[in-house]
Structure formats: C-alpha cells, structure tokens
# Entry
Amino acid sequence: MASTAPAPSVARPVPKAGATAARQGTKTRRRRRRVDPVFYAFLLPALALFTVAITVPAITGIFYSFTNSIGFGEFEFIGFLNYVVLFSDPAVLSSYGFTMGFALVTVVLVNLIAFFLALGLTSRIRFRNTLRAAFVIPMVISGIIIAYVFQYLFSNSLPALGQSIGNPLLSQSILANADLAWLGIVIVTTWQAVPSALLIYIAGLLSIPGEVYEAGQIDGATGWQRLRSITLPLVAGYVVINMIIGFKNFINSYDIIVGLTNGGPGTATRSVAMTIFTGFTGGDYAYQMANAAIFFLIAIAIAVLQLRVTRGKAAIR
Amino acid sequence: MLGGLGAAGATALLAGCSSPGAGRTDITFYMTKTEVLEHFGELIAEFNSSQSNVRVILDSTSNIAANFVRGNPPDIACFTYNLEMARFMERGALSDLSDVRIASEIRPEVQELVDQYATYPGRTSVIPWSVTAASVIYNQQIFEEQGLAVPQTWSEFTEVCEALTAAGITPIYGTYRDPWTLAQGHFDYTTGGSLDVAAFFDAMHEEGTQVGIDSSVSFQQDFREPMERMVQLNEWSNQNAASRGYGEGNFAMGEGEAAMYMQGPWALTEIEKTAPDAPLGNFPLPMTEDPNDTRVRVNLDLALWIPEASPNKEAAREFLDFLTQPEVQDTYNQQFLAFGTRRDAPPQQDDRIAELQTYYDEGRFYQGASKAIPLTIPAEGYIQAMMTGSSVEGTLRTMDNDWRRLALRS
# Structure
C-alpha cells in the first residue's frame, strides 16, 4: 500500500500559486458546472478498483495492527503494543536505516548517470538510435533475473578477477561482506533503474526549443553556462519526477535484494519491504501490519516533503 | 497485500475446477514437495481409478496460510509439519484423527515430535507419515584413504579435521551464502548434539519475557559453547564458503572437493545428479566426549492432517487410509531416503543413510533448534552473521532480546 502513496501526486501538475489562481478562480467555478457527467463515469472504474484493491486492504491492515492476530483464528486487541515494541526492535530499525540510506545513494547515482547519458544521447553523435536502444535493455529484463545474473558475477567472476590481479579486497565476494554487500545492491539497482530515468531525461531535453540555445550562443555563453543556465532550469521538472519516482521505487526494493543477498550477510541488507513480508511467511501478521502502517506514513511524508520543497520551480510545463 | 489478492484469484480458479462430478466427492489434496509430486500424481491416479466414491484433486501451488485465513483449507494435506503449521493445530483448525487405523501404530517417540511444537487437548491432529534424518554427510573414500575412522567424540572430530587439513584436503564444505544451509546444518547439529533441544525451548517459553542473562535458560548461556564450536568449524571449511551456495556445495561434494558436508538426505539426491556413484555415508556430529550423546537431526518431512473446516472429512479419510497402507508408505520412504513412522516400518536399505537407522530406532534424535525459533526472529541471518565474523556473545544477546520482545506481544 505504501507504494501507491506518492503516485497520484506525481501525475498532477503542481498548480501555480498566487495571483494566477485567484484570477482564474471565478472562471473555473463557472466552468465546473458545465462538466459532462460522462467524465465522472470515466473515473468510476479506477476509483472502484483503487478502493477495493488499495483502500480497503490498507484500512483492514491498520485495524489488525492493533491486535495480536496471526492472520487466522481468534485475536485480541492489544492497543499500541505492536507499535511500542516496533520502535525498540533493532531488526526493524536497522531495516529502515539500510533502506533509506540505500534509496538515497541510489537515487542520486541513478539521476546523475541518467542525466549525463541523456545529454550524450541527445547530442549529434554517431549510432545515436542504436545506443539509445542498447541503454534501455536493462529496463525490460525482470529484476529477479538481473539479480541472479549479478549474484553469479559478484560471487564467482569478480573474485576470480580479483585473485588473478592479486587484489585482496576483490578476491572475496562483496555480497558476503556485511560492510560492502549494500554496494552490490546499489550497483545492480542502478543498472536496472537508469533506463527509465534516461527515457524521461531524453524526453525532457528534446522538449527544450533550439532557439534558446541559439540565443545563448549569440550572447556568447560557454557550454558549461548553457548547461547550468538553460538546460538544467528547463529540465528541473523532470529531475523532480525522476527523484520522486526513483525514491519511491527504491524504498520499496524487494526482488533485487532477495536475488542478490536475501537480506544477508546476517541481516545487513534486509529492506523494510522484506521485513514486512516476513509477517506473512512467519505468522507475525499483526506486528508487521504495524510496521507497514508506519512505512506508509513515512512514504506519504516523503512525497509531501518533496513536492513542497520543489514547488514553483518544479512546475511541469 | 497484492500477493494476497493474487492468491485469492488463484484459489477462485481452483474452486472453479473442482465442481463435484456425478456421484463422486471431489476432495483437494495439498502437497507441495516438488521432488515427489510425480510420485504422488501416480498414487492419486491409482486411488482415483481404484474406487468410484472419491476423486482426489492435487493442489500443489496455493498458499496454505491464506487458505486457512479464508476458511477454505484443503480437505487433506501431506505436508511438512513445523512450528508454522503448529499454529493452526493449536487453534483447533485440524480435526481429530485418533480413531484412524494407523494412529495406534505410529512410533510414540515420533508422535512425540508433533507435540514438541504444540498440542490441542484430546486430539491427535497430525499423523506423521515420513521422517527425514540428517547428519554429517562424509566421503567414505577420502576417510578410507586417509585411514580415518568416523569420529565418536568432539575431540576425535577435531583430530579428523586437523588430519584432513594436514593432508591438504578441505575437511568441511560450507555454503554460507544460503543461510538455511547453516541453520539446518551447522547450527542445528552443534546445538542438538550438546543439549536437549525440546526441553530448552519448553523452558524458554516458560521464561518468556524474563529471558536474559539471569534467567534459568537463555541463548546467551546455553548456546554459547555450541555456537563457539560452530564458529570454530570455519577453520576447517573451504575459504570461499561465504560466497558459495547450496547448488555449488552439492556439485563440489560430488566432485570430492571436501570430506564432509552438513546436509540432509535431500542433498544426497541432488549430488546424485552429477555424481551417481559418490561414495557417501552419514554420521551424527559428536559434540561431547561421550559417544552415547550423539544424536541425529530429524524433521517431520511429511505428515497427514484433515482440517476441521473441510466439508468432506469422510472422503478425505478414505484417501488417508489409502496413503497409510504399509506398502504405499514404505515404498515412498524407501525410495526418497526417509524413515517410516509405524512401529513395524522396514529399515532403510540405502547405504548412504543406513548408518542412521540405529539412531532412529533407538529414538536418539532431536528436531532442529532453528526450527523451534519463530520466523519473526531472523535466526538464519544471525547464524550467517556469526559464521562470517559477528560476535557470538552479541548475537546471542540480540536473540534473547528478540525472544523477550516476541513474548511480550504474543
């Protein structure tokens, strides 16, 4: 349920605050009355699905988080006990620490790589279309397959390489090292997540009219100045989209981690989503529902925060 | 949440398939052990054609917990019995089978394994059908060539390991990348050989929220020595154990790359695929200086039960009677390297595990400690952490804390 929280906010363009809104106020009200009821009919299926598949289960889950239910049979209300225990559970707290740290590092890395790749792929280089296609391939492969392939590379190929060049750090699998395993997950997740960010950046760069660059050139702007003062401000909206979508996806990471480390070594790389899922397999339903409720609130908070910080300059044209 | 919905969809499809045929009662039979599905498919076909009252439909995919939650469990199941299943039994979800023919023929010490997890007053809810026994798998040829005898005590075991190391042979093959292999092997063997696992966990449940360094039992006190010895096994394991997985371990054992392997009979059938003639045998890991203390690890690999919520209990019992015929049960256990559960079950003939028969007959066995820890406590991860360098003392303290926290809210 947490995964869906920021999604609607992303799709909605941020309205321009202030004078414009006030001026349009009366006009909008008059227009609203003339809305064809058929538009509401369009909304209905999605609304019904959203309610049945998201809202109802979410409320049910929050209800159970105040009980000691194992998902079956009788249960008792135990108030906030699950929440109290949750905040003192090192396994849960460390899963939050890992997930947030991992998501932050990955989102920055993905956006840096995708942005510069997009710059390259929208310039007049040879084989541009072929290269674009090649860079998008990781996106169409299932995460669990990527994870298993990389797991083999990290456990076998990389150590073999490390041994042959005599590097002691590389000779052992980084996935077996509790301090380095998260790096492996960052690398693989980045590899998979760059293409979708790349596509959005390419679209953004192509939407910048050529005239502004021409004008810049006439005024004698250097390449760096053009990037800083023309390109970056004009794609800012796309950066925000990529940051929000990326961060939301990364805090929900599951398949790649399961395939690479399965949360190990020890519990060093257990993500929040994995911890929540143990509630189903381990018969600890109510407790992990409490965890999911907290996670849901955090996801909402992040979405609101990101929108607030970037409001105005992030407006999508 | 989405997973639950997916399962719901799958069950709806299954329900659509099982509309009752003319005059026959359809029952769903839950069985998920992939390696033996084919064998059970044949058994079901045989049963279905042998009579005309009941038709058995195999369900090998749905989620058992979700089925119970929805009040739509299978009519009969042949399933691993463990702590997770015990939760359903404890809440009275499984019907009483004390009057079926086989109930009085089960070995009492095997029936006792069911009760170690939980009981429901006045009921025999679960019929053990197949027990697997696990211990140290060893390469008999290597032992013979090095002139080594099967160790009976911990010090003999350390000598064997030292001798193998001196001869340039890897004593133990470790596959730490798959934490379950450590939990069922290293962890369960070292604890099971050192202490009475069932009694320990009884006392742990008794202490509940009091578990800690000062309580009568705790992981910190009672598991300290076994865990230190477990970590010691590292010295005698392959250097790249931390990055090896179960599949690689099986292959390596088939190639004779190491002398010993902490795995159960399931690994034997895997090793067989690449090395049909691997000269392998079994011995329980000795943890004390008294040879009489050696025990093997067992689990109720398959047990039969009929849910209380099934509308077709009588029909399900007919199939239960079919499955518990001595020839059906014994054929299975012989073929799939397991042990029978009746008093008169014939001994296991397979050379690789025949050495375990005496232990089984004498009741010198235990259920693994890792299986007695609720899954909420990430014990497998903790074990892996200890084996890859985390402090034993600190990890066991964490486990005590987790136990206390769990006791507080359940």
About this structure: The longest helix of chain A spans residues 90-122. Residues 160 and 166 of chain A are 10 Å apart (CA to CA). Chain A touches chain B through 46 residues (CB under 8 Å). The domain at 2-33+83-309 of chain A is CATH 1.10.3720.10 (MetI-like fold).
